[in-house]
Design the sequence.
């Protein structure tokens, strides 16, 4: 079954072992920083203990002292990954930490992690971690994308130990790291997204003497980097997820370069607004458009040309031509569909109907059963929407989904009543989450309030955690326990089970078989408390909860 891994900020990471039915979880706190730190110290002149120390989450101090230097207080895990780094056939956990060394937690084969290995590089601010065989010797090496210090490749000695640490050129301000064979020579190169963006070409042995600067302004607005063959010419292009304007860089493999940079459209071309001051000296006239606009001197015109902030992105073939288009879920400006011309360019940008909604989540699913993919928008402060596809990637008709105007932070589609069509799941913040049962034609006459009251739901997902053949609902919550809602088989949820972990701020919830026993475990990604893996016992209970490592709690004052 699928267990859950939680990478946390400010508290221990965890593994939650699923008992197999999504009902019972075993909560396992993952090892923290490699041992016990105990410090007994005398008062300094200022009444604070000045003696240093190092270690993990357990330590002591004389009454009234601070002992602030004994063990890191609140490691933040920015990135988590799973890979078999010791070659024993099970998945180990990689933690990219800020404030303490990043770590590899070796899996004992049963979802427990008795061995915690501190990765070389000190207490760097690691924002991204990945595993790849960069030296071509058959085991997985570790890539650390660091901010304010060099990014690194840690070469695996074959048993999950990393004696060799290589500082990568030009990688001092990295937000995202990835590996891909961009020059087509059979080994894995490294992609660094940050300030600046670059590709490091591998010589085949895990060294990277050649660094190629990618096009862009180097302002550090790239938060995600990835590789894919978007133009269909057989080589890997680079995709940059930027704060303002996402872009695609087309690979010219023969030249080891990326001469073509395509900005993905995110809003309309130009907005020009000339307006007079209101009584308070601020222009009150609204507008919409792109970054270029004009205003009368001294006025604000803040709404004219407001830049798009994309909260959610997805790739899917909405126009049915066999290539992947891009969906942008934008906050405070219209969401968009970018149609792929088949060569990785996106000449057609379509504004989705509904105006400048506050969209926090976007998804695609064929909810009306006509064979094309419709678009779901989860919105703040206004109804969420279903946009019906005309079959060619245009969306002339949209439906407001039933329910009170609320904060929908997460939207998904799944057949929860087992009638063959896709229902809609709304994860709401501050009001009850809902399942909208599809009548088969994209209308939703039946709205079911999910158990849990006015929960602060930040993430929603569907998975068969109790193994009875229907889809249960997972709710990741803020400030209260996350929930598994067991499906009665008809899309109603009579049983609500609180997941272990207490009142965490869970940003993301998912299901996967992390311990390889055939049932789905639950993963909780938390902020301010331990991330966790809940191991399923096979019947939807989760007696084992594993706290993922990377946190040392604050000492009692």
Sequence:
């Amino acid at each position: 079954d699928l267990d859950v891994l939680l990478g946390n900020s400010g508290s221990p990471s965890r593994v939650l072992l699923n008992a197999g039915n999504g009902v019972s979880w075993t909560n396992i706190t993952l090892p923290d920083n490699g041992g016990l730190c105990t410090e007994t110290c005398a008062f300094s002149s200022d009444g604070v203990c000045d003696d240093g120390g190092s270690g993990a989450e357990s330590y002591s101090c004389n009454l009234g002292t601070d002992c602030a230097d004994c063990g890191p207080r609140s490691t933040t895990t920015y990135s988590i990954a799973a890979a078999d780094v010791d070659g024993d056939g099970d998945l180990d956990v990689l933690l990219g930490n800020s404030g303490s060394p990043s770590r590899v937690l070796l899996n004992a084969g049963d979802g427990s992690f008795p061995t915690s290995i501190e990765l070389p590089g000190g207490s760097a601010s690691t924002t991204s971690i990945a595993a790849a065989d960069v030296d071509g010797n058959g085991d997985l090496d570790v890539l650390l994308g660091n901010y304010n210090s060099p990014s690194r490749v840690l070469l695996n000695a074959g048993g999950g130990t990393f004696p060799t640490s290589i500082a990568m050129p030009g990688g001092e301000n990295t937000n995202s790291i990835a590996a891909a064979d961009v020059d087509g020579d059979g080994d894995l190169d490294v992609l660094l997204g940050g300030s600046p963006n670059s590709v490091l070409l591998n010589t085949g042995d895990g060294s990277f003497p050649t660094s190629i600067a990618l096009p862009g302004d180097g302002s550090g607005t790239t938060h995600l980097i990835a590789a894919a063959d978007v133009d269909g010419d057989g080589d890997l292009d680079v995709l940059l997820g930027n704060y303002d304007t996402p872009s695609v860089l087309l690979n010219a493999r023969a030249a080891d370069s990326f001469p073509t940079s395509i900005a993905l459209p995110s809003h309309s071309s130009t907005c020009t607004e000339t307006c007079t001051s209101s009584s308070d000296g601020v222009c009150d006239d609204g507008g919409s458009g792109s970054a270029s606009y004009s205003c009368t001197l001294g006025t604000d015109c803040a709404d004219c040309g407001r830049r798009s902030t994309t909260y959610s992105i997805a790739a899917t073939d909405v126009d049915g031509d066999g290539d992947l288009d891009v969906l942008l879920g934008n906050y405070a400006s219209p969401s968009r569909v970018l149609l792929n011309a088949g060569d990785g360019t996106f000449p057609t940008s379509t504004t989705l109907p509904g105006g400048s909604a506050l969209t926090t989540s976007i998804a695609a699913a064929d909810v009306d059963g006509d064979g094309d993919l419709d678009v779901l928008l989860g919105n703040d402060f206004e109804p969420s929407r279903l946009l019906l596809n005309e079959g060619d990637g245009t969306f002339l008709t949209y439906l407001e989904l039933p329910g009170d105007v609320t904060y929908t932070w997460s939207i998904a589609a799944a057949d929860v009543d087992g009638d063959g069509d896709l229902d809609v799941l709304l994860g709401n913040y501050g009001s009850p989450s809902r399942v909208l049962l599809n009548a088969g034609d994209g209308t939703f006459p039946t709205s079911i309030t999910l158990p849990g009251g006015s929960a602060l739901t930040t993430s929603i997902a569907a998975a068969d955690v109790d193994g009875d053949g229907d889809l249960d609902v997972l709710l990741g919550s803020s400030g209260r326990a996350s929930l598994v809602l067991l499906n009665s088989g008809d899309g109603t949820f009579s049983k609500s089970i609180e997941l272990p972990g207490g009142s965490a701020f869970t940003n993301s919830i998912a299901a996967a078989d992390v311990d390889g026993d055939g049932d789905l475990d639950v993963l909780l990604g938390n902020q301010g408390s331990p991330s966790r893996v809940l191991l399923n016992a096979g019947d939807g209970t989760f007696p084992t909860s594993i706290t993922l490592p990377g946190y040392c709690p604050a000492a009692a004052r």
